[in-house]
Amino acid sequence: MKSRAACRVGILLVLLLAGSAVWAQHLPQVPGPPYRPGEIVVGFEPTVPASTLQTLHVLHGALTVRQLPQISAHVMRVSTGGDVGALCANLSKLQGVRYAEPNYSRRVLLAAPNDPAYNNLDTLIAPFEEAAEPTWFQWGLHKVEALAAWGVWPNTYYTSATKPLNAVKVAVIDTGIDAGGVDGIPHPDYVNASGTSCDAALGGQIDMADGHNVLTGYDPNDFIDDYGHGTAVSGVIGASTNNGGTAPGNGTAGLGYNCQIMPIKAMDDTGYGTEADLAAGILWAVDHGALIINISAGDYYYAQVEQDAVDYAWQHGTLVVAAAGNEGDSMNRPLYPAACAGVMGVAATSWPDDYPASYSNYGDYVAVSAPGGDYSLVPLAFWGIWVPMPTEPVPLHDVGWEPGVAEYQYHFGTSLACPFVCGLAALYAGQHGITQSTPGGVMQMWRAILKGCDDIAGGPGWNPNWGWGRINAYQTMLDNDNRMATVGCLTGQISYYGTVVQNALVEAEPVGGGTGKSATTRSDGTYRIANLDPGFYNVTATIYAESDTLYNVEVEAGIDLPRVNIAVPAGVTYSISGTVTNAGDPLEGVEVSADGYSNTTAADGTYTIDPTRSRRVRASTPLSRQAGTSLSTRPKAMPRAWTSSARRTPTQFRAR
Fold first, then answer.
1. Are 277 and 301 in contact (CB under 8 A)?
2. How far, in Å, CA of 455 to CA of 272, rounded?
3. Does the predicted model carry a pTM greater than 0.90?
4. Helices in 394-440 by DSSP H: which ranges?
């Protein structure tokens, strides 16, 4: 996570810092546009001529993005320029068109929450152009259409008396959380209205019972945030919403306020931990019921222990989401665990233009993007993410926009984009009743988040800067295919003799023929085959002249199919022995084969085949198909010369 101080622009920045201590005055909400820009709704006669649709496309650039066949209506995208009303009037005159109208906005009946940071503009950081969009303290929530999403579900705000005790658990593996600190006073953003405690058992937002410290030498029950990062990240996910505040910038709302935060302290008061700490945090979270895990930390070195922990999470019905990293330079190395197979890697976007944030990493492992904030030098302006901070002195206060101890500050980073995605996952899971035991629950969340994204890249499919686009909470909650993408992706990891391998060739060939695509694996064994046509594919991994194939793998438009993992069978040979009998009597002279190797049975029906790499054994005798015929095998692994890749010593990871 980057604070405003990371920009370091000398005296100009000092002046802005000095001016930021003045609170922005309370301003009314600015209403949204009356209709969705660039979209119209056209109603057709039941037997509309094909020429009419062609005319709409050729003359007006109209492209159907959604159909309502029951009422013969199309939602169409058109150029955003010009008078939409006049365009619709002209289209209504075409043969076969019953009506054409703007795709008018509809607002939810759930009132905006009373959290001051959601409802107020920060005039001190607004863009220096009168025509530019206003800058809310919590502009990120406005950008992803949070209020509309909340109106879909849960369509209510909670008090300490009404907050569900079985709320979705989101584990935040980080520096801890301010649940009271040494002074015992709970942070106001984790206490629900009419309550006095942040404990989820008492109507608050924090799962105090399962909070944990995995750092060696620490009290396992001490998850106090002595750095500041974890408190900020947790607020984006699940700060209490509609519980008021004391000043225009105080009191934030969390996108997934329906959830409860499980704080897992895996980094110390310097913002550092190790891969083993992080893996231990993942395992603790899964074993204690976390449906979603937020990891706003990482580093550039692949660690098998992290991958194994991620595999464990996936197998037990837990979604892992991780920040893509903040060093988006020309080297652009993948960051772990975001780049681990089966992790939803999150890049950061800016305000108000949805460009990739200047610092955000990008690449094959990015699945999706979300608001992370950015800074601009022309004009000098800042659009950070407004977050809650510990109420006691911590190091992260010193690098924030507000000098000294401030309960709320602006910060930047993929650290803050990541929890937007986790908050949305919690919201969606709550709506659909998804738990760890829900069959396919992780994939259901994955699919909904990616398909609901806004198409900010302007392309047909996946893009390394944005993934599948910037999240749109409202569209996700509606289960809409918002992007209407026409292609999909395969991602996964290739191993050879249990070791991940670089430069393995992965090929996806369409079942039934056609043009396929291929990719090679990175040093961590992971790959992405991007933007494939929907359909079924045979996926083959080849390394060291050996290969294995997954058959009939389905590619779905608009999403990644994660964890298409292939373990190429190699590195072990088997000595296979057994007996062949018929009705209990041994058979002599029966040929037994396996992978091109064979032998015949002795008088007592026994045989031995050595060597083979397979346990697929066949007895080639007519008697073997008769009732009572028995073929038994006893494979025994034998060593084979093998040199694995060098193992790396454990390294530290750090908050991003």
1. no
2. 35
3. no
4. 414-432
